[in-house]
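Re: the request from the purification team.
They wanted to know what the chain is likely to look like in 3D before they choose a buffer screen. I agreed to run a prediction and write the result into the notebook, where they can find it.
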Amino acid sequence: MRPGDSFWSIAAAHLGEGSGRPPSAGQLGSYWWQLVEANALDLPVRGDPNLLFPGDFVILPPLPAAVRLEGWRTGR
């Protein structure tokens, strides 16, 4: 984590890297929830995914198949 990072910004960046374009709102919301759940036990304050600190590490769940396929089709 860097200053200013959030699960939302991390989800958007990871999905965008996987597909080569910005994710849809539905893709982003779904992946954000997976990201929060994958890191729930390691949150600084359990139940508060908005409280993260620089230097924290997060687990990135696998990208959804549809996003991986989009990236493959676009050559990324």
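For the purification team: The chain has a mean pLDDT of 85.
Please add any questions underneath this entry.
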